[in-house]
Structures are given as C-alpha cells and as structure tokens.
Amino acid sequence: MINKNKVLVGLMAIYFVSMLIVSFIKADDEYSDTERRKLKQMPEANVEDILEGSWMSDFEEYVLDQFPLRESFRAIKAYTAFYGLLQKDNNGIYISDGYISKLEYPLNEKGLYNAINKFTYIYDTFLKDNEQNVYYAVVPDKNYFMAKENGYINLDYNQFFSILNDKLSFMNYIDIVNLLELTDYYKTDIHWKQECIEDVAKYIGSQMGVELLAEYEKHMISRPFYGVYYGQLALPIKADNMFYLNNQILSECKVTDLQNNREIGIYDMELAEGKDPYEMFLSGSLSLITIENPKAETDKELIMFRDSFGSSIAPLFVDGYSKITLVDIRYISSQWLDKYIEFDSQDILFLYSVPVLNNGELIK
Amino acid sequence: MLFSSISFLYYFLPCVLALYFIVPKCGKNVVILVSSIFFYAWGEPKYVIIMIAMIFWAYISGYILDMCKSDKQRKIYLILAVGVCLGFLGYFKYIDFFIDNFNKVTGLSVSLLNVALPIGISFYTFQIISYMVDVYRGSANKQKNIIKLATYVSMFPQLIAGPILRYSDMEKQLDDRRSDIDDIALGIRRFMVGLGKKVIIANSLGELCEMFKSSDEKTVVFFWIYAIANGLQIYFDFSGYSDMAIGIGRILGFKFVENFNYPYISKSITEFWRRWHISLGTWFRDYVYIPLGGNQVSQIKWFRNIVIVWVLTGFWHGASWNFMVWGLFFGLLLIIEKKWLLRHLESSKVFSHIYLIILTVISFVIFQAVDMTEALEYIKSMFGMGGVSLISAETLYYLRSYGMILLISIIAATPLAKNVVGKLENSSKYRKIVGVGEVVYLFMLLLVATAYLIDGSFNPFLYFRF
User: Fold this and answer.
1) B277 is an active site residue
2) How far is A66 from chain B (nearest CA, A)?
3) Chain A residues touching residue B447 (CB < 8 angstroms)
4) Residues in chain B closer than 8 A to A11 (CB atoms)
5) What is the 3-state secondary structure (H, E, C) of chain B?
6) pTM here?
7) Where are the domains of chain B?
8) Looking at this predicted complex, what is its ipTM?
C-alpha cells in the first residue's frame, strides 16, 4: 500500500528542489512586457546596504520579479481572486463584457484641483493678455460607460464635471462625452481608438471654428494589440486590433520632437511593433511636439495641452491648422512654457482624460 | 525574513532543511542556530547583536542561579537577571512611550529617543525569562551547552512571532529528538495550512481593512464589516504564523505547544482566552498570575491579580494606551464572568456565542486602532453614533467583492472542515479519496499562496510589532 506521507514528502521535495534549480539556471529577465516595466536585477552587495537591510529588501523584490513561471503564477492569482473568491476586481482591475478597466475611485479632489490650478496658472500667465480662444474638453474613461452598469464603483462624475465647469469658467467647455461610447475604446487598453473618434475631432474643430473635411484611409497594424490593462489583468483574453488613419496631408507633415531635437513621423511604425503599440501615435510620451502642415490652406495654429489621449486625436486636427503644438505638462513644467512656445493668437485646447485629471498631482 | 516570502519559502527553508537532514545528529542544533541567526539578521542586521547579548546573559545567569547557595541569593539574582531582560525590553519597546507620557504629565519636553523596536524582542525575552525562572524553580537544569541554549532562544520557526516556548518543555527536545517521514509530512501539512491562512485569507482580509481605512464614505455597515474582517484577519494572520512555526518545528523534530484552538467558537471570554494565544496566556499564568497568588487569595487580591495580568498582557502587545485598555477590557470581562456571568452564559449557547463575537470584535477594534480616540470613534460609529449613513454603494461593492472571503474565513475559523475530513478519513470508503485529495489540496494551497506572494506586495505580519 502506498504511504501517503511518503508521497507528500517526496512530491514536495521534488517540487522545491526543481524550483530551486530552475531559479538558479533561469537567466534574469530585463523587462516585463505584460506589466510594461523593467524588472529588478540582482542587487550589488556592499557592507553598508547589508547593515542597513536595504540589500535584503532589494533582494526580496528581485526574487519576486525573477521568479520562474511568474506570469503563470500571476494568472493563478487572478483566477483565484475572480473565480475562486468571487472578487469583483483584482488589484483594482476588472473585466466586463470583454472590456478591461481599472477602478477610478474615489474622486480625488486634491488631484483635480491641482490640475485646475495649473491650467489657471497657464491661462493667467501666458494666455489671458493675448485674448486667445481657449477651450477645454474632457475624455471620459471607460468606467464612465461600464462601471455603474456592472456593479462597480466609480467616481462621482457629476461632481467631477461640476467642479471643472465651475473653476474653469474662463475657458470654453467642449462637451464630447455624449459623442463617445464604450466601443470607441480598446478592450485591453485605457485609450480610445483613433478610427472611432473622427466625429469627436470634427466636433471639437467645429466648436473652435475649424471645419475638418479630410478623408482618411484606415490601416491595420499587423501585430495584435495587448493594451496596458491586459498585463495587469493577468488573464488570457483576446487581443485588440489596432488601426490608424492616414492620408496624403498627414504623410507630408513635418513633425518635430522638440524634447529630443529630432524629426519624427505622425505614426511611428517601429513603435507599432514594439512593447506598447499605442506609442505609434506621435511617438508616445513626449513633452513638446510640433506638427507643421505644408498643405494648410489657413495660417491658424493650435496649441494643445494634452495627455496620451491627445496623441491619437491630434493628427485629425491637422487638416484645419498650419501648425499644431502639443504640450504635455506632465513632463514639462508649466512655468517654463514661454521658453519654448511663443504665445500669440493661436487657438488653445486643453484636452485631458478623467484618470489624469483625477490624479492631477502628476501635472507640473 | 518573513515565512510568507519567496526568499524564505523557496530558498532559505529548502536549503536549511536539506542541510539539517544531511548533517549528523551532533550538528543539527548548530544548523538551526546558524540558520536562525541568518534568518534574524536578514530582517534585523544590527539588532542581532542584542539577541546574542541576551543569550549570553541567560547563559551566565543559568550558571549563577545554579551556584547560588541560599534561596535568598537565588531569588535576588533571579530578580536581577529578569530585571536586566525586562530592562532591555523596556528600553527598546517602551522608552518613548514613557517619555511621551512623562512629557504630557509634567508639561516638559524631553526629547523622544526614537528607538527602533527589534523584531521579536517580546517573544525571545519571554523565552529567556522562562529559562531563568525554570532553572530557579528547579523545573529545568541549567544549560551547559551554549549552542543548545542559543538554539532554544533564537530558533527561527518561532523566533519572531511565537509560539512562546517554555524552556522546561524544550529542554529534552534540544538534547534528543527525532523526525521520521510521518513527522515531516505532518509538519508540511501544518505549514501549508498556515501559509494559506496567512497569505490567502489574512492578507485578503487585510486588503479589505485597508480599503475601509482609506474610504471617505464610511458607513455603519462598513464599520461592522471592518470590525469583523479585522478580528478575522488578526486570527488568521497570527494563527497562520503559529501553524507555520509548529509545522517547521515538527519537520525539525520539535513538538511546539499549540497556540490557537478555534477561539471564535468559544462561548465566553474565559474560554476564548484558553483558545487564543495559548502560549502567552499560560506564560502569564505560570510566571505572573500564580506567583501573585492566583485565585488562592482573598477575592479582592484575586481580582487585583487578574487586572495586573491583563494590563501586562495588553502592554506586552505594544507601547500604547489602547493596548492597555484592550488588556484591561478583557481583565474586567473575566472578573465579571468569573463572579457572575459564566453560569448564565452556559445556559444559552446562542446568546453566549453572540456575546463572545461582539465583545471580541470590539476588542480587536481597540487593539488595531492608532489610539483610543480612533478606537472610540470606530466603536461609536459601529452603533450608529458616528454621524455616518447606514450603507452606501461603496460599502455594498466591498461587501460583494469580499463576501466570499469573509464567508470562507468565518467557516475556516470553526472546526467544521477538520471534523468533516476526520469523519471521511475514518470511513474506509472515502479514506483513499481523502488521502489523494489532501495532497492535491496542499499543493494547490502552495501554488495559490505563491501566486499571491508574487502578484501582491500586501504582506505584513501583524504580530511582528510585538
């Protein structure tokens, strides 16, 4: 008769010895594609760090990051949380009808007011005296469309917009919320799809007195798009398809990355094949970009203060302007703006998403 | 180093166990001692010196106590030896508390020393005192071999969160112990169950408690959810650690005392404390309560003894007034029960159980509060006197999201599963299925606990601060 104690001890010994051997043999990974972050490497040992205990903490983080079958273990955790313990979310990430989102709760008034104060500072310092046309629009996050309906908590959007409208009354508000729906967003990513927001661009343009008439060809990126939430969810779900809109005008635009003093394209096809394909739109997170349209039939210019949502909609404004300047004040301090931008008679658009405004501490 | 860390589970423990079973019998205590010092130094590289110094003090004291010729000399030296240990504990754990309160009473502003608390000092100090008192009483011989004494004090399985081992229980085991395949299997079972209790249940409940604390929209129902989750978290956290300690001890051939015995099924506070942190309760009983006279004195002195023991029990848990109030709360309840209530509680199982749950839940709100102001605010809010609404969408969300874990933890806090498995094991029809199922279950626990460790960083051990 088989002795169950021997079986238990034997199996445990085999498991632990195997894991020990694998973890010593396995080469350390540099980067986690699913989490989009660099993984901890083996910390260098020195007496000071060991006595302080910081080496040990770093080592703990290192072994967590480099553990064999790490992604499989993360999936086990997600399955246990969602299907074993019936938790509604896993680390704040949830999935409903194939759409993944992250809880944005509660309303962070401190963050929102920080964003408002920065916008007000920019207006008072650089824009007010020029009597420029200043507009703002807010991109709702996916939770706006899917949280409440599916029993999730979300921030108080009424209060959120009420605070914004009250405090930014010196700007013209362009309400784009009703033009959007859940299907306008990627299932696995936080962002909206460029091919679904032509109407939004046209509406914003019309509100700024610009008629956008350009036609676009829709192109598909061959690589499946696994968005930022995919890795955080840690469950296997179907990838999105990613499209971009192009035409002759966009192809001929001169796009300058002033942060790195280089010319880039509207779309970076190398980044489209990279770790975060959404970075293909205007080369991702850059603080200052100009798009010059040589085919423009107007000399109007636009300065757009924006977050990453702006990267995919900005090309759709090109048709109506000779030059668009995109500023991301998460990466450049507001007080230095006049060193890089000559404020004159340009149209000004503040286009920000709810998550960035609700975490407005990020805005400098 | 935490038991519930990848470095302990997958690197430290397998290497130590491999080494332990490879070396001959005479080297086994050395393996435990060296690995224990490494284990401790991993978390407290500087304060390992304090522990080593106290071990030497205990070793020397054992000799001196043995050499003292008269009872008076022995008593005086015991007071000195224990006093030094308590002096260390007092300095590291309570000095800032005393300075702070001295400043409040006198209006002076003596600077705080901001002394960091060495991990596990409360546990190993009590073990050293146990050694000294046992040698003094003659219930144990002085330990001539410092390796064995150091192994007893610093033994990594129970070094930083108990159970508190009595020297008289461990004396023979330090000299001679054996662990066969059944002991190892039993130890593995115990360890895995403890790991699951800590990592899957306690940490999930801890997340719920954190959600509550960070909420701006607390409600009466949310206060109760927090109070229940908090009481369960403390139980699963601490009993999980004890299970892991007992399990590792068993693998190494030691038989540690049990520390928990389903305390939440108790029907009185008196019974609760026979089932909760048993090693601390019996320590205070044998080394404080009985020497004070226990219940073999006048009623007034008996009650005094109870109050002293419970205020000390509370104070042992932390240098804060809420811990003392927590201890006093139990002391007073025990007096009331012993004098009047116990016989009434025995007559109604339902009432006595509700009584026990409500009082323990409230006690752990006091226990976990930052200070008494917060504790009172929470308790008032639980009973609708905090000016908060009854329920909100947020409360309902967290109740739905953590409902299953709360249900599992409530069931797991009872011996239901243990009894069912026991019955099935006794049935020839199901014995084989239970045997296979148990191995699968233990592996699942290990894999899921590993997954939780890898995925999350929420992993504090509540009893480390003691």
Assistant:
1) no
2) 10
3) 73, 76
4) 439, 443
5) CCCCCHHHHHHHHHHHHHHHHHCCHHHHHHHHHHHHHHHHHHHCCCCHHHHHHHHHHHHHHHHHHHHCCCHHHHHHHHHHHHHHHHHHHHHHHHHHHHHHHHHHHHCCCCCCCCCCCCCCHHHHHHHHHHHHHHHHHCCCCCCCCHHHHHHHHHCCCCCCCCCCCCHHHHHHHHHCCCCCHHHHHHHHHHHHHHHHHHHHHHHHHHHHHHHHHHCCCCCHHHHHHHHHHHHHHHHHHHHHHHHHHHHHHHHCCCCCCCCCCCHHHCCCHHHHHHHCCHHHHHHHHHHHHCCCCCCCCCHHHHHHHHHHHHHHHHHHHCCCHHHHHHHHHHHHHHHHHHHHHHHHHCCCHHHHHHHHHHHHHHHHHHHHCCCHHHHHHHHHHHCCCCCCCCCCHHHHHHHHHHHHHHHHHHHHCCCHHHHHHHHHHHCCCCHHHHHHHHHHHHHHHHHHHHHHHHHCCCCCCHHHHC
6) 0.90
7) 6-177, 183-267+346-465
8) 0.90
